[in-house]
């Protein structure tokens, strides 16, 4: 009997609500206006009273009842406000919900629940977590992930995708209102970020970690402030990296938060007819991809994701196509109606794609045009070009060289050949079909950047470009290699490629190891810009968090944090050392030149690989040394240079060296740090001008001088 009584209570509660209009019209809850209208016309035509002639009275009455329900259901779903009310409360008119709830029992449990059991999300305070002061409500359904203490760490913290997590309560009116926005955001993200929810009534401890009252609190946020949305970047690993969302609950704002602060996507500039020309004339190394849209606003997640992932190869922008400017766009670019895409590749190759409706077509265009006609082969473009073992490509043709006239000619010739093969009037059906089926690839390689490729594929003068063809054998790392040695004529190159593609082994070198490409690295300027952007972003975020923290937790917490940050460097600061005053050279120092005796020469020999020794040969102290003194004074700050004069009559062994090397008295020599090479740069007695000697030493310091083999004389032992 008690089971039957519970069933009656459940049936009464269900019947009290409005009849489900979606079920009557046989449409899904996500059906658009067109689908609803189509279903309504079909069912109303079927159950219309005029269509019931010749049927029994019972069937006619049943059809009339069904026809009335169809009319009421369409009245609810065709009215945006009534449909929204029904989705949130189960009633088309909120007054009905209030009126019917007045007659429900207020014994602290849900209808149909056993006596003494607290309803999920209800207002009963006798349960473990309590009802948080909310009225009884049905669960808020969602297609996003339900997060629990068991799956949160693996699903969110260790995910390679950013996450937006909503902390909610079924009884919160605001949570019910934003439920459609949350579902719309989940659909709009399209792989940019994943969405999940934490029910504060079921998992208050997890809610306290995801959305604490303030960053240093162990209590969850006030339930009256629900819903709370918190972002977690990819591979976050811990709760401290969460970023609380503080904007309006709108799909566009949530998407922008996920792309800017979680995924780190680059922004897509919005161009006008005046700024588009400068954009198209920008970086010549990149493909220009311009999306024309009839609506103004921020870029879609798909465009921003492409602008980030393809930033090394593609510059992405969008243009608001105004009808008032239609004549200009038609005349300038042949752009009649949006949405459309303009792609500009090298050599002024312009591609217009019209009627780009739907994200699938836009995504296909981005993938198709992300590379130039003749792309550069780099480690990041190996997969997209297919020029690697184990793929679909059977033959890869590459122009290899260093920027210059000859290499530009070879590259332009290969690009023109590829464009010819892709045109309807292609001279070779075999190669055209191979290009279309991704069995033939054409690229160019920077020999200066990819030294491993240059050494593996060809030898010789790096300034003379080469066109080589690599034939792959399934997944083997070794390839067959052929080098083109003919003239830069497209027809001849096409014939050479055809013979290789058809299996001709003449001139082929087998068993060549496929070279490893250098890893792409950002330049200093690009790294500096990215570091600046990320630093400013985090600084703005933490500044805003300090302000919110002072509001939510009082000023004591942020003031304490600021004092701690200021005091930490002071604790580890070392005492400043007094700078030693720089010694100024006196006039006596400028005129003095050290005469190297046997002990000094032996010491300089032992200090090899530490300094260059600049010495002047003399026969007596009366020899003219003015030019050598000027030379010493010009380079006295160079720590790698040691100056001195050698009396070849006194120093043992140096007289024979001077005679054998042709260095007479007055000659100036520079010894290599290894003391096995030297160079005579001139005379220090005034016969050669002082600036000439200085320029020769500058060349030696810059590594632009040649050396003469010689051995440092051995001192005679006494």
Tally the helices: what do you get?
26
User: How widely separated are the two ends?
Assistant: 126 Å
Strand content is 5-15%
Approximate shape: elongated
Low-confidence stretches: 1-16, 98-130
Mean pLDDT: 79
**Could you give the count of β-strands?**
20
Computed CA radius of gyration, to the nearest angstrom? 41 Å
Task: List the topology elements.
Layout lengths: L1 H15 L4 H5 L7 H14 L10 H21 L2 H10 L4 H9 L42 E2 L5 H6 L5 E6 L4 H17 L4 E6 L4 H7 L17 E5 L10 E2 L6 H12 L7 E2 L4 H5 L6 E7 L7 H9 L4 E7 L5 H8 L6 E5 L5 E4 L5 H10 L13 H4 L9 E7 L3 H18 L6 H8 L3 E7 L4 H7 L8 E6 L6 E7 L5 H12 L7 E5 L10 H30 L2 H16 L15 H5 L6 H9 L5 E7 L7 H9 L6 E7 L6 H8 L5 E5 L5 E7 L6 H12 L6 E2 L9
Parallel strand pairs: 1-3, 2-3, 6-8, 7-8, 11-12, 16-17
Antiparallel strand pairs: 2-4, 4-5, 7-9, 9-10, 11-13, 13-14, 14-15, 16-18, 18-19, 19-20
Question: Any overview of this molecule?
Answer:
By secondary structure, the protein is an alpha/beta fold. Helix content is 40%, strand content 15%. The chain is built from 26 helices and 20 strands. The strands form four sheets. A five-stranded mixed beta sheet has the order 1-3-2-4-5, sandwiched between helices. The chain has a five-stranded mixed beta sheet with strand order 6-8-7-9-10. Strands 12-11-13-14-15 form a five-stranded mixed beta sheet, with helices on both faces. A hairpin with a 5-residue loop joins β9 (340-344) and β10. α24 crosses α26 (690-701). The longest helix has 30 residues, at 524-553. It starts with a helix and ends in a 9-residue tail after the last strand.
